[in-house]
Amino acid sequence: MANKSAGLAKFLRAPSLPPVRSGTAVVTGATSGIGELVARELVERGFKVIGTSRSPQKDQVNGIEMRQLDLGNPASIEAFADSIEGPVAVLVNNAGESQSGPVEELPLDALQRLMQVNFTGHVDLTQRLLPAMRAAGRGRIIMVGSMLGSFPLAYRGSYAASKAAIKAIAIALRREVRRFGIGVSVVEPGAINTGISLRRTKYIKSDGPYSAEFDTMITNLDANEAKGISTQGLVAELFKAIDDKRPSAFYAAGSSAPVAFSAQRALPLEIMQNLVHRKHGL
User: Fold this and answer.
1) I need a labelling partner for 68 at 20 to 30 A (CA). Which of 4, 172, 265, 275 fits?
2) In whole angstroms, what separates CA 235 from the centre of its chain?
3) 142: how many CB neighbours lie within 10 A of its CB?
4) Assigned domain for 262 exists
5) Which range of residues forms the domain containing residue 245?
6) GO CC terms on record (predicted)?
7) What phi and psi values does residue 99 have, to the nearest 5 degrees?
8) CA 119: distance to chain centroid?
9) Using an 8 Å Cβ cutoff, are 140 and 241 in contact?
10) For residue 242, what are the contacts with CB-CB under 8 A and spacing of at least 6?
11) Count of CB atoms situated within 10 Å of the CB of 112
12) What is the pTM of this model?
């Protein structure tokens, strides 16, 4: 019985991984919001921190070494990865675009750009940094997703799809690299006050059939984010993926995450969808 219990515990628990307490950390999108706070905390912990921006203004920002990276440009990703010397101990794939619009009216080139920036670009960068991480035998890779990847919302379908894609590939990657001492986790923010509503790209025909409902959703979305948890609260959750000896596959904060995920397991999909949409005035 004891052997069976031990076997079950091993099956249920995430594997123990080598600790990551120092080394080089890469944080994409480190000029504001989540990325900036994560990068600053890593500096405080003694990591050599390389932050990225599409147009960095300074070589050093509060101890963060800023380098140019445009996730929408594969050549930029290659050049950035080639500039990294030695293994990366922590990779935080955080940069991205927030996009809104009815599926019918989304320009194809905008959708393709979103998937490149929010999904393919991060996969490309991760692939390029992984060989050195494997050779070092340790590391943490954190994908910053969104609770919309688990709870899709009307008029946010493209964004939700990009975050669902990053979640799915992270789950696969997690199993592939754990034997090399590398942990992979997805952090899913819910409503969080980062100011991202000011930078959201919107595609909507003002005189189209979706405009009134779209405006209702956006108004409620902006209000929910303004009342959301602080960025610091989400960053504290993210650091569990770095600090935990047995990092979980998922960490979430905001939008009553524990209640939402528990309800998702218990309620039919249609009911969960109705609850998500009601929260946004739909």
Assistant:
1) 172
2) 11
3) 25
4) yes
5) 17-279
6) membrane
7) -125, 145
8) 10
9) yes
10) 20, 90, 140, 142
11) 12
12) 0.91
Residues with active-site annotation: 159
In tens, the pLDDT along 123-166 reads: 999 999 999 999 999 999 999 998 888 889 999 999 999 999 99
- Which residue is listed with tokens 């405009």? 211
**DSSP assignment of 159-182:** HHHHHHHHHHHHHHHHHHHGGGTE
Count of residues in the chain: 282
Using only C-alpha atoms, the chain has a radius of gyration, in whole angstroms, of 19
Q: Is residue 139 part of a domain?
A: yes
Distance CA 163, CA 147 (A): 8
Look at residue 164 and tell me if it is in a domain. yes
To the nearest 5 percent, what fractions of the chain are helix, strand and coil?
50, 15, 30
Helix 269-279 vs helix 257-266: angle between axes, to the nearest 10 degrees?
A: 150
Number of domains in the chain: 1
CA–CA dist 240, 236 (Å, integer): 7
Indicate whether 59 pLDDT > 60.
Answer: no
Q: Is residue 8 part of a domain?
A: no
Judge contact between 69 and 76, C-beta under 8 A: yes
Higher-confidence residue of 185 and 229: namely: 185
Whole-angstrom Cα distance, residue 143 to residue 149?
A: 12
So what's the pLDDT on residue 58?
A: 58
The CATH number linked to 141 is 3.40.50.720
Per-residue model confidence as pLDDT tens digits over 181-209: 999 999 988 777 666 656 789 999 999 99
Let me know if 62 is exposed, middle or buried by CB neighbors in 10 A (0-12, 13-18, 19+).
middle
* Nearest partner of 139 among 173, 171, 178, 84, judged by Cα: 178
